[in-house]
Amino acid sequence: MKIQKWMDEHEQKLIDQLQEMVREPSVQLNEWGIQQKIAEWLEDLDFSVDMWEPSGTELFSHKAFMSKRENFKGSPNVVGVKKGAGRGKSIVLNGHVDVVPEGDLTDWREDPYAGMIKEGKLYGRGSTDMKGGNAAMLFALQAIDALDIQLKGDVIFHSVIEEESGGAGTLAAILKGYTADAALIPEPSNMKIFPKQQGSMWFRLNVKGKSAHGGTSYEGVNAITKTKQVLEVLEELENTRNARVTDPLFAQAPIPLPINVGVIEGGSWPSSVPDLVKIEGRVGISPEETVEEVQAEFHEAIHSLEETDPWFKSHPVEVEWFGARWLPGAINVDHPFMKILTKQYERVMGEQPPVEAAPWGTDGGILTAVGKTPSVVFGPGVTKMAHQANEYIKLVDVRRCAEVIAATLVNWCNEEENG
Amino acid sequence: MKIQKWMDEHEQKLIDQLQEMVREPSVQLNEWGIQQKIAEWLEDLDFSVDMWEPSGTELFSHKAFMSKRENFKGSPNVVGVKKGAGRGKSIVLNGHVDVVPEGDLTDWREDPYAGMIKEGKLYGRGSTDMKGGNAAMLFALQAIDALDIQLKGDVIFHSVIEEESGGAGTLAAILKGYTADAALIPEPSNMKIFPKQQGSMWFRLNVKGKSAHGGTSYEGVNAITKTKQVLEVLEELENTRNARVTDPLFAQAPIPLPINVGVIEGGSWPSSVPDLVKIEGRVGISPEETVEEVQAEFHEAIHSLEETDPWFKSHPVEVEWFGARWLPGAINVDHPFMKILTKQYERVMGEQPPVEAAPWGTDGGILTAVGKTPSVVFGPGVTKMAHQANEYIKLVDVRRCAEVIAATLVNWCNEEENG
User: Fold this and answer.
1) How do beta strands B182-185 and B91-96 pair?
2) What tens digit of pLDDT does each residue of A142-165 get?
3) Is the C or the N end of chain A the one with fewer CB within 10 Å?
4) What region holds the Peptidase M20 dimerisation domain (chains A, B) (predicted)?
5) Contact B260 A231 (CB under 8 A)
């Protein structure tokens, strides 16, 4: 109750800090400004702050490493650690500061980095994904500090880069030993609790044809026409894979593990038969399967075309895994951290939380797989706002999320170890 | 026989001139050099030469005008006229000097403009399309001149720009009055006689979807998936249109009037559901139908999607006609010019000529429709060499074609008018 009271009295501080965060245009390569601010805020709370540009062979050669960058100069990670009094459970609070590019500016009604507030919503690139969540975590820690609440367990605050490009920031933090008994990641779950996170990875398919003049199209093989068959195989594969999903956490999703074709490109002249079409997409990975298993099943589906179609037999579709990958993650729904989070949610929100599987991957996948830190996603904001023009977040959700996080920290970090 | 003898004795001149033509990299905007050469060669034959940069409202506002250019500065047309002795049939010899860009240079084994000769083939951009034909026409005129053969009818030599982009050069020549009783166009027909030329025009279709995150793909509508339906409608339309073609001139073509989808492009992020796919292609036009009729049938097919699919009903596919258009053309197979050309072919080649419909459009469409000049395509080189890397032409075909053209000129231009 005193947390609620303090938060009510200091709500403007939360809003101001979120606005400051959004006003930092922290697209890739431009994260320094916001990281400096977060480092200062954490220092104000007596956190021991580590700010560094990730580097080194261990990171770059790690099997979970995924980034197109050759170094992270100018893009520091920040981790703040506040040691507990002892014998309590530790927690990682993980949020990324990188935002996706603002896209076509003419689609925005306001400057994407103005942080305009209107009718209870704060607008701007990154407001939902995921500065709203970051502001909620910070505000929770500020309330605990202001109210002089002592925690037994350590609090480790990850303010990371590169989530949008494969999680190299969180991986770098893990490799420095910044792990804990559990992790909370306030990505935009629309205040749902996601104990399970779907992973995903990107594929590229090169579908071949044979060029010819369009007036004698029958002398060629149209790669666009052949791509239709490839799309059908991907649809069948999506059906097969999803028919196997029985976990009730996925019950809300019509397609729990989508295969999405996001990009298509082929040909250069309307009057020519195109000899190559490139398609790119993402395939969802369930926490019950490995990256390798998904890839093997995917390859098998694509290569099945070669059994029935002589063209594909002599011109197999090329499969490439490229760009980004987010590992899946899961925490047992009966895990003590889930119980505490759920209970505190009920107390603050006055209702039972929706508990579902996340339709997308987060750095929780790497935290689970590499950092051995069971991770839960719970945050303000809705998925469909992320990456859109005129992105916004409802301030009331940020405020409520902060209160749930503060209450969860107090209860979790004061759980006795081995008790 | 004396033409054959003279050509045998002067064959090196033909080769040298073709090589000179290929060494002029006459891509769009770079036609000045070759046109200057052709003007000089025609002047050497006592042609009255008109070299001008096409311009003016009549041209630019003509309904058959098709070009992306706003002016033709630096890109002159050349027309040479040699008046006959009188009362003979006149002829247009039409060839374009523009070549398509050389494309990826790494695909070429030699400099595309070197004009290398190897094993009876001359290599280079434009060798087949259509400098081989142009060289054959010029050589035919040189033989007639050298042998002091008098023609009764006028010979009008069109050396035009812009054939590859819609025929504005030939249109400009027609508007200046350079028309005749018949026209010969030595585009690469592989020495077949094409009394009928398929026209074609370019379409662009915008297929709409609804964007969403790929992890919740079911919240969106994938424009790539919707495009599959559009491609199927185009296939059906192609079947319907071709089932109507009964002209035996098209008997050699498995698909007389192809609809070719040449370009596809959509989406920008593998993890997003794409909301727009653009496809571009060409649709063949038979000489028996008008541009407007083909467009109407095409629109009807695309809009039929709206009757069965609610998505298309609320988000109709946008149809655009853009870029290039080649009008169809035809000359009656019993036309006196056809009879003479066929007979001279038989005499020179010792066999009956294949007579077919052209699978592509040429400037013969504009010559027929606007210039009221019945046009025949007959030239050396094969379609599949055109627009390719390592384009080449067989010199023996250029030489034979020149002889057929010379013999045809002698016989056609000495036919009495009205007789």
Assistant:
1) parallel
2) 999 999 999 999 999 999 999 988
3) N
4) 197-304
5) no
